[in-house]
Protein backbone atom coordinates (compact mmCIF):
# COMPACT_ATOMS: atom_id res chain seq x y z
CA UNK A 1 0.00 0.00 0.00
CA UNK A 2 1.37 3.40 -1.00
CA UNK A 3 1.78 6.35 1.37
CA UNK A 4 -1.48 7.99 0.26
CA UNK A 5 -3.44 4.77 0.68
CA UNK A 6 -1.95 4.22 4.13
CA UNK A 7 -2.83 7.77 5.15
CA UNK A 8 -6.41 7.34 3.94
CA UNK A 9 -6.70 4.08 5.88
CA UNK A 10 -5.42 5.88 8.98
CA UNK A 11 -8.14 8.53 8.60
CA UNK A 12 -10.83 5.86 8.25
CA UNK A 13 -9.57 4.01 11.35
CA UNK A 14 -9.42 7.32 13.23
CA UNK A 15 -13.01 8.06 12.23
CA UNK A 16 -14.27 4.63 13.27
CA UNK A 17 -12.45 4.90 16.61
CA UNK A 18 -14.17 8.20 17.33
CA UNK A 19 -17.49 6.87 16.04
CA UNK A 20 -17.42 4.00 18.55
CA UNK A 21 -16.24 6.21 21.42
CA UNK A 22 -18.80 8.92 20.83
CA UNK A 23 -21.61 6.48 20.10
CA UNK A 24 -21.12 5.62 23.76
CA UNK A 25 -20.37 9.06 25.19
CA UNK A 26 -22.95 11.06 23.23
CA UNK A 27 -25.66 8.58 24.16
CA UNK A 28 -24.50 8.72 27.78
CA UNK A 29 -24.74 12.52 27.84
CA UNK A 30 -28.16 12.43 26.23
CA UNK A 31 -29.73 10.08 28.79
CA UNK A 32 -27.76 10.57 32.01
CA UNK A 33 -30.02 13.18 33.63
CA UNK A 34 -33.06 10.98 33.00
CA UNK A 35 -31.23 7.89 34.27
CA UNK A 36 -30.08 9.59 37.45
CA UNK A 37 -33.61 10.78 38.21
CA UNK A 38 -34.70 7.13 38.17
CA UNK A 39 -31.83 5.98 40.38
CA UNK A 40 -33.16 5.33 43.87
CA UNK A 41 -30.27 5.66 46.32
CA UNK A 42 -30.04 7.73 49.46
CA UNK A 43 -26.25 7.84 49.06
CA UNK A 44 -26.23 9.43 45.59
CA UNK A 45 -26.82 13.15 45.11
CA UNK A 46 -25.36 13.81 41.66
CA UNK A 47 -26.84 15.77 38.75
CA UNK A 48 -26.23 15.05 35.09
CA UNK A 49 -26.37 18.77 34.29
CA UNK A 50 -23.74 19.54 36.94
CA UNK A 51 -21.52 16.73 35.67
CA UNK A 52 -21.59 18.06 32.11
CA UNK A 53 -20.89 21.56 33.42
CA UNK A 54 -17.77 20.24 35.15
CA UNK A 55 -16.66 18.38 32.02
CA UNK A 56 -16.89 21.44 29.79
CA UNK A 57 -15.35 23.75 32.37
CA UNK A 58 -12.33 21.49 32.90
CA UNK A 59 -12.07 20.87 29.15
CA UNK A 60 -11.76 24.59 28.46
CA UNK A 61 -8.95 25.02 30.98
CA UNK A 62 -7.14 21.83 29.92
CA UNK A 63 -6.54 23.05 26.38
CA UNK A 64 -3.43 24.78 27.75
CA UNK A 65 -1.71 21.54 28.77
CA UNK A 66 -3.09 19.18 26.12
CA UNK A 67 -0.44 19.85 23.40
CA UNK A 68 2.33 19.18 25.90
CA UNK A 69 0.78 15.87 26.99
CA UNK A 70 0.46 14.70 23.39
CA UNK A 71 4.04 15.75 22.66
CA UNK A 72 5.36 13.72 25.60
CA UNK A 73 3.46 10.42 25.18
CA UNK A 74 2.55 10.55 21.48
CA UNK A 75 -0.86 10.85 19.81
CA UNK A 76 -1.80 7.15 19.82
CA UNK A 77 -1.19 6.61 23.51
CA UNK A 78 -2.78 9.99 24.25
CA UNK A 79 -5.99 8.96 22.48
CA UNK A 80 -5.96 5.48 24.02
CA UNK A 81 -5.61 6.69 27.60
CA UNK A 82 -8.14 9.46 26.98
CA UNK A 83 -10.52 6.80 25.69
CA UNK A 84 -10.04 4.81 28.88
CA UNK A 85 -11.13 7.83 30.92
CA UNK A 86 -14.21 8.21 28.70
CA UNK A 87 -14.98 4.52 29.23
CA UNK A 88 -14.46 4.88 32.98
CA UNK A 89 -16.94 7.75 33.11
CA UNK A 90 -19.56 5.68 31.28
CA UNK A 91 -18.87 2.60 33.44
CA UNK A 92 -19.43 4.69 36.56
CA UNK A 93 -23.18 4.71 35.76
CA UNK A 94 -23.34 0.95 36.30
CA UNK A 95 -23.25 1.69 40.03
CA UNK A 96 -23.18 5.48 40.54
CA UNK A 97 -21.50 7.04 43.57
CA UNK A 98 -21.44 10.79 44.08
CA UNK A 99 -17.68 11.07 44.59
CA UNK A 100 -16.79 8.84 41.63
CA UNK A 101 -19.34 10.61 39.43
CA UNK A 102 -17.83 14.06 39.87
CA UNK A 103 -14.23 12.78 39.92
CA UNK A 104 -14.83 11.04 36.61
CA UNK A 105 -16.33 14.28 35.25
CA UNK A 106 -13.09 16.14 36.00
CA UNK A 107 -10.97 13.40 34.43
CA UNK A 108 -13.08 13.33 31.26
CA UNK A 109 -12.72 17.10 30.92
CA UNK A 110 -8.93 16.73 30.90
CA UNK A 111 -9.08 13.67 28.64
CA UNK A 112 -11.28 15.49 26.12
CA UNK A 113 -8.70 18.22 25.56
CA UNK A 114 -5.92 15.65 25.08
CA UNK A 115 -8.08 13.48 22.81
CA UNK A 116 -9.05 16.24 20.39
CA UNK A 117 -5.54 17.66 20.29
CA UNK A 118 -4.10 14.25 19.37
CA UNK A 119 -6.84 13.77 16.78
CA UNK A 120 -5.97 17.07 15.14
CA UNK A 121 -2.31 16.11 14.95
CA UNK A 122 -3.05 12.71 13.36
CA UNK A 123 -5.47 14.20 10.85
CA UNK A 124 -2.91 16.80 9.81
CA UNK A 125 0.10 14.49 9.36
CA UNK A 126 -2.04 12.07 7.35
CA UNK A 127 -3.25 14.82 5.00
CA UNK A 128 -1.72 16.99 2.32
CA UNK A 129 -3.03 20.30 1.02
CA UNK A 130 -5.01 18.46 -1.64
CA UNK A 131 -6.49 15.79 0.68
CA UNK A 132 -7.15 17.82 3.82
CA UNK A 133 -10.71 18.76 2.86
CA UNK A 134 -11.54 15.20 1.81
CA UNK A 135 -10.08 13.66 4.95
CA UNK A 136 -11.87 16.21 7.15
CA UNK A 137 -15.15 15.28 5.49
CA UNK A 138 -14.54 11.54 5.96
CA UNK A 139 -13.78 12.01 9.64
CA UNK A 140 -16.76 14.33 10.19
CA UNK A 141 -19.19 11.91 8.52
CA UNK A 142 -18.00 8.92 10.54
CA UNK A 143 -18.12 10.94 13.76
CA UNK A 144 -21.68 12.13 13.17
CA UNK A 145 -22.91 8.56 12.74
CA UNK A 146 -22.27 8.23 16.47
CA UNK A 147 -25.56 10.09 16.93
CA UNK A 148 -27.48 7.15 15.45
CA UNK A 149 -26.45 3.81 16.90
CA UNK A 150 -26.49 4.46 20.65
CA UNK A 151 -29.67 6.51 20.50
CA UNK A 152 -31.34 3.86 18.34
CA UNK A 153 -30.49 1.25 20.96
CA UNK A 154 -31.98 3.45 23.70
CA UNK A 155 -35.15 3.92 21.65
CA UNK A 156 -35.81 0.20 21.26
CA UNK A 157 -34.54 -0.84 24.72
CA UNK A 158 -36.62 1.75 26.59
CA UNK A 159 -39.74 1.65 24.45
CA UNK A 160 -42.80 1.43 26.68
CA UNK A 161 -40.88 2.07 29.91
CA UNK A 162 -41.95 4.84 32.28
CA UNK A 163 -39.24 4.04 34.84
CA UNK A 164 -35.61 3.13 34.18
CA UNK A 165 -34.84 0.23 36.50
CA UNK A 166 -31.39 -0.67 37.82
CA UNK A 167 -31.26 -3.57 35.36
CA UNK A 168 -32.17 -1.29 32.43
CA UNK A 169 -29.49 1.19 33.47
CA UNK A 170 -26.81 -1.44 33.95
CA UNK A 171 -27.57 -3.14 30.63
CA UNK A 172 -27.32 0.11 28.69
CA UNK A 173 -24.15 1.35 30.35
CA UNK A 174 -22.32 -1.99 30.24
CA UNK A 175 -23.01 -2.04 26.50
CA UNK A 176 -21.87 1.57 26.08
CA UNK A 177 -18.69 0.91 28.08
CA UNK A 178 -17.75 -2.01 25.81
CA UNK A 179 -18.44 0.08 22.70
CA UNK A 180 -16.26 2.90 24.04
CA UNK A 181 -13.40 0.48 24.80
CA UNK A 182 -13.58 -0.92 21.26
CA UNK A 183 -13.07 2.61 19.93
CA UNK A 184 -10.09 3.17 22.22
CA UNK A 185 -8.31 0.00 21.09
CA UNK A 186 -8.93 0.81 17.41
CA UNK A 187 -6.43 3.67 17.72
CA UNK A 188 -3.59 1.12 17.93
CA UNK A 189 -4.34 0.10 14.32
CA UNK A 190 -3.26 3.53 13.04
CA UNK A 191 0.07 3.22 11.25
CA UNK A 192 2.88 5.72 11.49
CA UNK A 193 2.81 8.36 8.76
CA UNK A 194 5.32 11.00 7.81
CA UNK A 195 4.18 14.56 8.49
CA UNK A 196 3.58 16.56 5.34
CA UNK A 197 3.89 20.29 5.89
CA UNK A 198 0.95 22.21 4.49
CA UNK A 199 1.51 25.61 3.01
CA UNK A 200 -0.92 28.40 2.39
CA UNK A 201 -0.46 31.91 1.21
CA UNK A 202 -2.77 34.15 3.19
CA UNK A 203 -2.63 36.87 0.58
CA UNK A 204 -4.10 34.63 -2.08
CA UNK A 205 -6.53 32.56 -0.06
CA UNK A 206 -10.14 33.40 -0.71
CA UNK A 207 -12.26 33.48 2.44
CA UNK A 208 -15.01 31.66 0.61
CA UNK A 209 -12.91 28.93 -1.00
CA UNK A 210 -10.25 27.81 1.44
CA UNK A 211 -10.40 24.05 1.98
CA UNK A 212 -8.82 24.35 5.38
CA UNK A 213 -11.30 26.89 6.63
CA UNK A 214 -14.19 24.76 5.43
CA UNK A 215 -13.26 21.92 7.74
CA UNK A 216 -16.35 20.67 9.51
CA UNK A 217 -14.62 19.29 12.59
CA UNK A 218 -16.15 19.99 16.00
CA UNK A 219 -12.80 20.07 17.72
CA UNK A 220 -9.25 21.30 17.58
CA UNK A 221 -8.86 19.14 14.49
CA UNK A 222 -6.62 21.37 12.46
CA UNK A 223 -5.45 23.76 15.08
CA UNK A 224 -3.58 22.20 17.93
CA UNK A 225 -1.47 20.11 15.57
CA UNK A 226 1.06 22.84 14.97
CA UNK A 227 1.54 23.19 18.69
CA UNK A 228 2.04 19.44 19.07
CA UNK A 229 4.53 19.19 16.22
CA UNK A 230 6.77 21.92 17.62
CA UNK A 231 6.49 21.01 21.26
CA UNK A 232 9.64 18.89 21.52
CA UNK A 233 12.31 21.56 22.22
CA UNK A 234 10.66 22.94 25.35
CA UNK A 235 7.32 21.57 26.39
CA UNK A 236 6.68 24.08 29.17
CA UNK A 237 7.82 27.14 27.25
CA UNK A 238 5.87 26.08 24.16
CA UNK A 239 2.65 25.80 26.16
CA UNK A 240 3.30 29.16 27.84
CA UNK A 241 3.97 30.86 24.49
CA UNK A 242 0.75 29.43 23.06
CA UNK A 243 -1.15 30.69 26.10
CA UNK A 244 0.28 34.21 25.74
CA UNK A 245 -0.54 34.28 22.05
CA UNK A 246 -4.09 33.12 22.77
CA UNK A 247 -4.55 35.97 25.25
CA UNK A 248 -3.40 38.49 22.64
CA UNK A 249 -5.77 37.06 20.04
CA UNK A 250 -8.66 37.09 22.48
CA UNK A 251 -8.63 40.90 22.71
CA UNK A 252 -8.41 41.51 18.96
CA UNK A 253 -11.38 43.23 17.34
CA UNK A 254 -12.15 40.22 15.15
CA UNK A 255 -12.16 37.69 17.99
CA UNK A 256 -14.19 39.94 20.28
CA UNK A 257 -16.84 40.19 17.58
CA UNK A 258 -16.86 36.44 17.03
CA UNK A 259 -16.91 35.67 20.76
CA UNK A 260 -20.67 36.32 21.01
CA UNK A 261 -21.35 33.90 18.15
CA UNK A 262 -19.03 31.31 19.69
CA UNK A 263 -20.69 31.77 23.08
CA UNK A 264 -24.07 31.09 21.49
CA UNK A 265 -22.86 27.77 20.08
CA UNK A 266 -21.85 26.76 23.61
CA UNK A 267 -25.32 27.57 24.95
CA UNK A 268 -27.21 25.79 22.19
CA UNK A 269 -24.82 22.81 22.40
CA UNK A 270 -25.94 22.37 26.00
CA UNK A 271 -29.58 22.70 25.04
CA UNK A 272 -29.68 20.15 22.23
CA UNK A 273 -27.22 17.66 23.75
CA UNK A 274 -28.60 17.50 27.28
CA UNK A 275 -31.60 19.66 28.11
CA UNK A 276 -33.99 19.02 25.24
CA UNK A 277 -33.84 15.22 25.35
CA UNK A 278 -34.40 15.30 29.10
CA UNK A 279 -37.40 17.60 28.58
CA UNK A 280 -38.99 15.24 26.06
CA UNK A 281 -38.49 12.29 28.40
CA UNK A 282 -40.23 14.18 31.21
CA UNK A 283 -43.45 14.76 29.25
CA UNK A 284 -45.94 12.28 30.72
CA UNK A 285 -48.46 13.24 28.05
CA UNK A 286 -46.25 11.37 25.55
CA UNK A 287 -47.20 8.19 27.39
CA UNK A 288 -45.09 5.09 27.84
CA UNK A 289 -42.87 6.04 24.90
CA UNK A 290 -41.59 9.28 26.49
CA UNK A 291 -38.30 7.83 27.75
CA UNK A 292 -37.55 6.05 24.47
CA UNK A 293 -38.18 9.30 22.58
CA UNK A 294 -34.93 10.61 24.06
CA UNK A 295 -33.08 8.21 21.77
CA UNK A 296 -35.24 9.10 18.77
CA UNK A 297 -34.62 12.79 19.44
CA UNK A 298 -30.87 12.19 19.38
CA UNK A 299 -31.19 10.44 16.02
CA UNK A 300 -33.13 13.38 14.56
CA UNK A 301 -30.48 15.81 15.82
CA UNK A 302 -27.82 13.68 14.13
CA UNK A 303 -29.72 13.71 10.84
CA UNK A 304 -29.89 17.50 10.98
CA UNK A 305 -26.17 17.76 11.77
CA UNK A 306 -25.12 15.45 8.92
CA UNK A 307 -27.46 17.02 6.38
CA UNK A 308 -26.43 20.55 7.30
CA UNK A 309 -22.72 19.77 7.46
CA UNK A 310 -22.75 18.08 4.07
CA UNK A 311 -24.97 20.55 2.22
CA UNK A 312 -23.52 23.77 3.61
CA UNK A 313 -19.98 22.46 3.34
CA UNK A 314 -20.53 22.01 -0.40
CA UNK A 315 -22.51 25.22 -0.93
CA UNK A 316 -20.28 27.46 1.18
CA UNK A 317 -18.33 28.68 -1.86
CA UNK A 318 -21.52 29.59 -3.69
CA UNK A 319 -23.60 31.07 -0.87
CA UNK A 320 -21.00 32.69 1.34
CA UNK A 321 -21.03 32.53 5.12
CA UNK A 322 -23.64 35.16 6.05
CA UNK A 323 -26.65 33.50 4.35
CA UNK A 324 -25.83 30.16 5.98
CA UNK A 325 -25.59 31.72 9.45
CA UNK A 326 -28.84 33.62 8.87
CA UNK A 327 -30.51 30.36 7.86
CA UNK A 328 -29.16 28.77 11.04
CA UNK A 329 -30.65 31.58 13.14
CA UNK A 330 -34.05 31.31 11.46
CA UNK A 331 -33.99 27.52 11.83
CA UNK A 332 -33.20 27.79 15.53
CA UNK A 333 -35.80 30.50 16.13
CA UNK A 334 -38.48 28.30 14.53
CA UNK A 335 -37.34 25.39 16.70
CA UNK A 336 -37.34 27.51 19.88
CA UNK A 337 -40.83 28.85 19.17
CA UNK A 338 -42.24 25.37 18.53
CA UNK A 339 -40.54 24.02 21.66
CA UNK A 340 -42.02 26.90 23.67
CA UNK A 341 -45.48 25.97 22.39
CA UNK A 342 -45.06 22.19 22.66
CA UNK A 343 -43.01 21.39 25.80
CA UNK A 344 -44.01 22.15 29.41
CA UNK A 345 -41.98 24.88 31.09
CA UNK A 346 -40.89 22.70 34.02
CA UNK A 347 -39.82 19.73 31.85
CA UNK A 348 -36.02 20.32 32.14
CA UNK A 349 -36.15 20.18 35.94
CA UNK A 350 -39.12 17.86 36.45
CA UNK A 351 -38.79 15.00 38.97
CA UNK A 352 -38.41 11.34 37.97
CA UNK A 353 -42.15 10.84 37.53
CA UNK A 354 -42.19 13.64 34.93
CA UNK A 355 -44.43 16.65 34.44
CA UNK A 356 -48.18 16.70 33.91
CA UNK A 357 -48.20 20.31 32.75
CA UNK A 358 -48.83 21.32 29.16
CA UNK A 359 -47.53 24.29 27.22
CA UNK A 360 -49.69 26.25 24.78
CA UNK A 361 -50.70 23.53 22.33
CA UNK A 362 -51.53 19.87 22.70
CA UNK A 363 -48.07 18.27 22.96
CA UNK A 364 -47.08 16.48 19.78
CA UNK A 365 -44.35 13.87 19.36
CA UNK A 366 -44.01 14.80 15.69
CA UNK A 367 -43.41 18.48 16.53
CA UNK A 368 -40.92 17.51 19.24
CA UNK A 369 -38.89 15.39 16.81
CA UNK A 370 -39.10 18.07 14.10
CA UNK A 371 -37.56 20.48 16.60
CA UNK A 372 -34.75 17.99 17.27
CA UNK A 373 -33.96 17.93 13.56
CA UNK A 374 -34.07 21.74 13.35
CA UNK A 375 -31.72 22.06 16.35
CA UNK A 376 -29.15 19.83 14.64
CA UNK A 377 -29.54 21.59 11.29
CA UNK A 378 -29.17 25.05 12.81
CA UNK A 379 -26.15 24.00 14.85
CA UNK A 380 -24.38 22.75 11.73
CA UNK A 381 -25.00 26.14 10.07
CA UNK A 382 -23.30 28.04 12.88
CA UNK A 383 -20.44 25.62 13.53
CA UNK A 384 -19.35 25.16 9.91
CA UNK A 385 -19.30 28.89 9.24
CA UNK A 386 -17.55 29.79 12.51
CA UNK A 387 -14.83 27.22 11.83
CA UNK A 388 -14.53 28.66 8.35
CA UNK A 389 -14.18 32.31 9.35
CA UNK A 390 -11.83 31.62 12.28
CA UNK A 391 -9.67 29.45 10.05
CA UNK A 392 -9.47 32.23 7.49
CA UNK A 393 -9.04 35.28 9.73
CA UNK A 394 -6.41 33.69 11.97
CA UNK A 395 -4.63 31.49 9.46
CA UNK A 396 -1.18 32.44 10.74
CA UNK A 397 -2.12 31.76 14.38
CA UNK A 398 -4.60 28.94 14.00
CA UNK A 399 -3.64 26.97 17.12
CA UNK A 400 -4.13 29.79 19.67
CA UNK A 401 -7.15 31.12 17.74
CA UNK A 402 -9.00 27.83 17.97
CA UNK A 403 -7.87 27.42 21.56
CA UNK A 404 -9.73 30.68 22.26
CA UNK A 405 -12.68 29.41 20.19
CA UNK A 406 -13.10 26.24 22.22
CA UNK A 407 -12.33 27.98 25.49
CA UNK A 408 -15.26 30.37 24.97
CA UNK A 409 -17.57 27.63 23.71
CA UNK A 410 -16.74 25.24 26.54
CA UNK A 411 -17.06 27.88 29.26
CA UNK A 412 -20.50 28.87 28.00
CA UNK A 413 -21.57 25.23 27.74
CA UNK A 414 -20.47 24.77 31.35
CA UNK A 415 -22.46 27.84 32.43
CA UNK A 416 -25.53 26.63 30.54
CA UNK A 417 -25.43 23.15 32.08
CA UNK A 418 -25.13 24.81 35.47
CA UNK A 419 -28.18 27.05 35.09
CA UNK A 420 -30.14 24.18 33.52
CA UNK A 421 -30.46 22.76 37.03
CA UNK A 422 -32.62 25.71 38.05
CA UNK A 423 -34.20 27.61 35.13
CA UNK A 424 -37.56 26.77 33.61
CA UNK A 425 -37.66 26.04 29.90
CA UNK A 426 -39.00 29.42 28.76
CA UNK A 427 -36.15 31.28 30.48
CA UNK A 428 -33.59 29.01 28.85
CA UNK A 429 -35.21 29.62 25.46
CA UNK A 430 -35.18 33.39 26.05
CA UNK A 431 -31.44 33.31 26.75
CA UNK A 432 -30.89 31.35 23.53
CA UNK A 433 -32.99 33.77 21.46
CA UNK A 434 -31.17 36.86 22.76
CA UNK A 435 -27.70 35.32 22.38
CA UNK A 436 -28.53 33.89 18.96
CA UNK A 437 -29.67 37.28 17.67
CA UNK A 438 -26.64 39.12 19.07
CA UNK A 439 -24.29 36.39 17.88
CA UNK A 440 -25.61 36.59 14.34
CA UNK A 441 -25.23 40.38 14.23
CA UNK A 442 -21.64 40.22 15.46
CA UNK A 443 -20.88 37.42 12.98
CA UNK A 444 -22.09 39.66 10.14
CA UNK A 445 -19.74 42.42 11.35
CA UNK A 446 -16.82 39.99 11.60
CA UNK A 447 -17.54 38.68 8.10
CA UNK A 448 -17.59 42.26 6.79
CA UNK A 449 -14.14 42.80 8.33
CA UNK A 450 -12.92 39.57 6.72
CA UNK A 451 -14.14 40.65 3.29
CA UNK A 452 -12.59 44.12 3.69
CA UNK A 453 -9.28 42.60 4.73
CA UNK A 454 -9.36 40.25 1.75
CA UNK A 455 -9.99 43.16 -0.63
CA UNK A 456 -7.17 45.17 0.94
CA UNK A 457 -4.75 42.27 0.52
CA UNK A 458 -5.74 41.95 -3.15
CA UNK A 459 -5.17 45.69 -3.61
CA UNK A 460 -1.79 45.58 -1.86
CA UNK A 461 -0.62 42.73 -4.05
CA UNK A 462 -1.21 44.65 -7.29
Give a count of the beta strands, DSSP E runs of length 2 or more: 0
Shape: globular
Largest sheet report: none
Based on the coordinates given, report the CATH architecture: Up-down Bundle
Name the CATH class. Mainly Alpha
Structural class category? mainly alpha
Give the full name of the CATH homologous superfamily: MFS general substrate transporter like domains
Number of domains: 1
Helix content: over 70%
Alpha carbon gap, first and last residue: 45 Å
Family: Belongs to the unc-93 family.
Membrane topology: Multi-pass membrane protein
Subcellular location: Membrane
GO cellular component, one term: membrane
Describe this structure in words.
The protein is an all-alpha fold and 462 residues long. The protein has a single domain, classed as Growth Hormone, Chain: A (Up-down Bundle). The chain is 73% helix and 0% strand. The chain is built from 16 helices and no strands. The chain is globular. The model is unreliable at 195-232 and 458-462 (pLDDT under 50).
Give a short overview.
The chain contains 16 helices and no strands. The protein is mostly helical and 462 residues long.
Show the helix and strand layout.
Layout: H1 3-38, H2 48-62, H3 66-73, H4 75-91, H5 98-125, H6 132-144, H7 146-157, H8 166-186, H9 225-229, H10 235-250, H11 253-281, H12 293-319, H13 321-342, H14 365-393, H15 398-419, H16 425-460
Features:
0% strand; 462 residues; Growth Hormone, Chain: A; 16 helices; mainly alpha; disordered C terminus; single chain; membrane; 73% helix
Amino acid sequence: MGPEGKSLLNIVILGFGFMFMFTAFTTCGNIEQTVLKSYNSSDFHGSGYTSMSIIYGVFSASNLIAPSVVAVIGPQLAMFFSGLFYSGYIAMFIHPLTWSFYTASVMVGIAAAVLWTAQGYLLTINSSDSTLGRNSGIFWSLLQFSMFFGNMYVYFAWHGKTHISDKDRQTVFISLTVISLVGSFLFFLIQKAEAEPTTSDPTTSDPMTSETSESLLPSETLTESSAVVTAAPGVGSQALDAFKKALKLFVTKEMLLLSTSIAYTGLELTFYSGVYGTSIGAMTVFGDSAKSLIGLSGICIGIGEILGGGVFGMLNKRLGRNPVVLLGLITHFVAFFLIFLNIASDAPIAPEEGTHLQAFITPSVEVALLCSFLLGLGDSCFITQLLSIVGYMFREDSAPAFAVFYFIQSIMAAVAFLYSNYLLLHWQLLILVVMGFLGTLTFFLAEWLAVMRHRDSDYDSI
